[in-house]
Amino acid sequence: MKHVLLISLVAVLALAAGCQSKNYGPRFDPRAPTGPAGTNASGLSFAPALRTGSNAASLSDAAFTVVTTSNRLEAEWLKPSTNLFRIGPGDLLEIEVLGDSTSKATAVVGPDGRIYYSLLPGTSVWGLTLTEAKQTLEKGLKRYLRVPPDISITLRSVGSRTVWILGNVNSPGVYSLSAPLTLLEAISGAGGTMGVAGAADGICDLQRSFVMRHGKLLPVDFDQLIRQGDLSQNIYLQPDDFVYLRSALTRSVYVLGAVGAPAVLPFADDMTLLSAVLSVGGTVPYARVSQVAIIRGSLADPRFAEVDFKEIMQGQAQDIRLQAGDIVYVPFSPWRKLGLIAESMLDQFVRTMAVNEGSRAVSPNAGPVRPVVPFGNLQTQ
Questions:
Q1: Does 150 share its domain with 170?
Q2: What SS3 class is residue 98?
Q3: Which pLDDT tens digit goes with each residue over 220-247?
Q4: Inter-helix orientation angle 2-16/338-362, to 10°
Q5: What's the pTM value of the predicted model, to 2 decimals?
Q6: Which domain holds residue 125?
Q7: What distance in Å separates the CA atoms of residue 17 and residue 351, rounded to the nearest whole number?
Q8: Total number of domains constituting the chain
Q9: Domain check: are 103 and 139 in the same one?
Q10: Among 145, 146, 155, 328, which one has the highest count of C-beta atoms within 10 angstroms of its own C-beta?
Q11: What number of H helices and E strands is found in the chain?
């Protein structure tokens, strides 16, 4: 089941990032000159002395711009869903004819949406509420019983609606979602954050923690929510939401976009923009190397710096020293307004993290994802 969930997650994220999955031909690597001496595959001159961090410069705060995006919390996310729970494949139902204790049985909704109970043939309950499923079963059993039955149906576990809660929590895993659930309730249900006793946020990096929905970053400010108690950030979760609480002990740099192999790199004190890009195979052909973005700070209020990586490769500008947590994004095409591409950069970041952490969650080497009970319990009778 764990691997099925992971495959589904990877498939959704692959579709969301499909616009960047083209075959760009031979990999562009500035370390492998193929043109005249001192040039790389794109004909750009390259200064070997800049391969180390000895001449690298640090970006000042003035180099970064706070970008306003259209990504905003919507009012309806702070309200519980008014839609009734609807049954789906994987849900476990307990069914009983009231007054007949021997009739109690459990039934798992199959991949085709059907359940098998008593004398009834396969009964389709996919998409039905518990009340509607009760009525469907009662109608079917009337043909076999002298007295019209009164059936009770209880939802014992949910397999059709889940949320991922991973990272720096005490019980990371894939949790069933059977009733309205807020973000704080989900974190609490996963055992709360790990860390020093008495610390409200444990040792979480709240600036880099996030919620992803349908492959996109939700603009939840975890610092405001957990440290400040700002309930305007306490959204209700929806099926397939991905919640990630990043550990403050994690020291990584993320290199994404038009590079050979986008990756999460362990941070080193002498890491530079050039060394990070080289570590992932360099840039691909047609990458917009003159408009590389470095993203720093909170995901809820990120700061962007635009760097001409072309000049760095040509030795016309100093290499840039990176900081732990930096996101390096090499665009595939030119952009005029940073705000228009900023959301795409952040969305790719959270998708990369979701696949990486989701893989780790189901890996035998990372320890099992604990089986968990659903949040809430639904019953009809």
A1: no
A2: coil
A3: 999 999 999 999 999 999 999 999 999 8
A4: 160
A5: 0.71
A6: 92-157
A7: 8
A8: 3
A9: yes
A10: 328
A11: 7, 19
